[in-house]
Amino acid sequence: MTDSKPDAGRARILGMMQGYRDTSLVRAGVELGVFDGLAEAGLDPEVLAKRLDVDARGLTILLNALVATGLMEHDSSEYRLSPAAARYLVSDRPGYVGHLTRILASDWEWDALKLLHEAVRHGGAVVDTHAETPNFRYWEDFAKHATLATGPTAELVADRLAPWLSTRDSVDVLDVACGHGIYGFTLARREPRARVHGLDWDNVVPIARRNAEEMGVGERVDFLIGDMFTTELGGPYDVALITNVLHHFSQEDATTLLKRVGEATKPDGRVVVVGFTVGDQSPDRDPAPHLFSLLMLTWTRAGEVHSERVYREMFAQSGFTRPEIHTVPGTPMRVLIAERA
């Protein structure tokens, strides 16, 4: 006699096998403007198809799939947004997250993750173009679309540094691999004396420059262009920011970068590192950093999410004090702040 009870484990595994379908569904809805098209009222699919200039049959299939996943509602004649879709997937609303499909559902990540089995065999990236490739185009998307998600973390960094910065004679800031630049620009907006020096590739800097202008600090921002391991950093700086960077490298290379930054930092200066960390909990209790490490395995030569113990070792070897570690509410990110010893 067979067991007819549902097997939750089997269902979970089969769901994981098909997860890419949900990803493609959300991305297609965002790219086609489906959620914006239904923002104000429910519509017949024929009417919506004309507005979006797409095939009506194809759109109906997509809408039914969105209903099946709970992002859309449907009656006999019209489709309308679910409350979650109305809140988070309409582009002119405050909670909008659809732009993150360009990052969380990017072709660059998927092309690398498709070869995860080969990355495991070889111990690192097997794709030709990846996170360590000069002028990698993905970083343009990251600089354009990760700004809103960065805000709370950047504000936490500014909050923690503000009392100390108020005592400084100067506030010169180095932002290594600055990307969108929001961390440095947030400091500059809070501290009128701050001058930010952002370092990144020449395809990313124009986006960061535009963000600086939009945040009202453009006149206090300069840029260095090139590789963070070889470009002359200048200085000395009061604050050095290394955000979402060190997990791209082995412990040895990350320590080398920290030492370079330390040499460009004033003796009593601060370094701020932002990123995932692995703690002492079992991976099933804190899954996000371990899943992110998979991307680093497929997307870098030797990167991974480092543990808090490893970070303490790297700071010590680079001439910094034991870091303060701060959590960011609502995210798995950590902020580590240390003083140059």
Automatic annotation (TrEMBL):
<dbReference type="Pfam" id="PF08100">
    <property type="entry name" value="Dimerisation"/>
</dbReference>
<dbReference type="InterPro" id="IPR029063">
    <property type="entry name" value="SAM-dependent_MTases_sf"/>
</dbReference>
<feature type="active site" description="Proton acceptor">
    <location>
        <position position="247"/>
    </location>
</feature>
<dbReference type="InterPro" id="IPR012967">
    <property type="entry name" value="COMT_dimerisation"/>
</dbReference>
<dbReference type="InterPro" id="IPR001077">
    <property type="entry name" value="COMT_C"/>
</dbReference>
<dbReference type="InterPro" id="IPR036388">
    <property type="entry name" value="WH-like_DNA-bd_sf"/>
</dbReference>
<dbReference type="GO" id="GO:0032259">
    <property type="term" value="P:methylation"/>
</dbReference>
<dbReference type="GO" id="GO:0008171">
    <property type="term" value="F:O-methyltransferase activity"/>
</dbReference>
<dbReference type="GO" id="GO:0046983">
    <property type="term" value="F:protein dimerization activity"/>
</dbReference>
<dbReference type="Pfam" id="PF00891">
    <property type="entry name" value="Methyltransf_2"/>
</dbReference>
<feature type="domain" description="O-methyltransferase C-terminal">
    <location>
        <begin position="173"/>
        <end position="320"/>
    </location>
</feature>
<keyword id="KW-0489">Methyltransferase</keyword>
<feature type="domain" description="O-methyltransferase dimerisation">
    <location>
        <begin position="16"/>
        <end position="91"/>
    </location>
</feature>
<dbReference type="InterPro" id="IPR036390">
    <property type="entry name" value="WH_DNA-bd_sf"/>
</dbReference>
<keyword id="KW-0808">Transferase</keyword>
<keyword id="KW-0949">S-adenosyl-L-methionine</keyword>
<protein>
    <submittedName>
        <fullName>Methyltransferase</fullName>
    </submittedName>
</protein>
<dbReference type="InterPro" id="IPR016461">
    <property type="entry name" value="COMT-like"/>
</dbReference>
